[in-house]
Specification:
The chain has no helices and 16 strands. It is mostly beta strands.
Length: 224
């Protein structure tokens, strides 16, 4: 369940060293404005939306409830949605939940521990669980992509987030800030990377590479 995978997703163009942005105050992130914990994409391109209210729905890239209305999801004993820093879906549709105390569990979209109780994970050097912005898993390789609030991303496994590729820089969609991002997911059909934004006024989504989040399409309106 936590096996290391060594192949990599090629949907980025960055081979340059990471240049970290100034750290954001966590309170400025729009995830504190909206109700989203994380958003990710299944192998079949269904999109799942986890909320701070403890519910998960499924839909399309632009409609959070197109396929299923919100239902409750369960977390490990003692954990609340505020403890979740990221959620990602693997190629077998198992869901990985990462927590602010440095642990990760494996389950379903509505049950965080159905397959594995929490075990420890390691962030990239200089990062902590609370600097994680989003995580997604490339369905073609099961490599784990992590985006941090300082504008860098890494590639690794579920328990070692930078074991395959060290930090490289990413950019949000034109006109958006990293602090507007509330979820990032890699599509199962083509490895395109989707990013959802909430600037406190509008909710949008873009599509691109892991390092250029609007390489394929700029922002379009979304409901979540």
């Amino acid at each position: 369940m936590f096996a290391v995978v060594f192949t990599s997703c090629k949907k980025d163009q960055s081979n340059t060293p990471a240049q970290k942005l100034p750290a954001f105050n966590n309170n400025n992130f729009s995830s504190s404005i909206g109700n989203i914990v994380e958003i990710d994409v299944s192998l079949g391109d269904s999109v799942y939306y986890w909320s701070k209210s403890g519910t998960v729905s499924s839909g399309t890239f632009t409609n959070s409830t197109a396929y299923r209305a919100p239902v409750a999801y369960s977390l490990p004993t003692g954990k609340t949605p505020n403890d979740v820093v990221a959620i990602a879906i693997a190629s077998n549709n198992y869901c990985y939940y990462w927590y602010s105390n440095g642990t990760v569990s494996v389950g379903y979209t509505n049950n965080a521990t159905a397959h594995s109780a929490p075990v420890s994970f390691t962030c990239a050097p200089g990062e902590t669980p609370t600097t994680i912005l989003a995580i997604s898993i490339a369905k073609t390789s099961n490599n784990v992509y992590t985006w941090y609030k300082d504008g860098t991303a890494t590639v690794g496994t579920a328990t070692n987030l930078a074991s395959i590729r060290s930090a490289y820089t990413y950019t949000p969609a034109s006109g958006k800030l990293i602090s507007d991002i509330v979820g990032i997911g890699i599509a199962g059909s083509n490895d395109h990377t989707w990013a959802w934004y909430n600037d406190g006024t509008t909710k949008t989504v873009s599509s691109g590479y892991t390092n250029i989040l609007d390489m394929y399409s700029g922002t379009t309106s979304a409901s979540f």
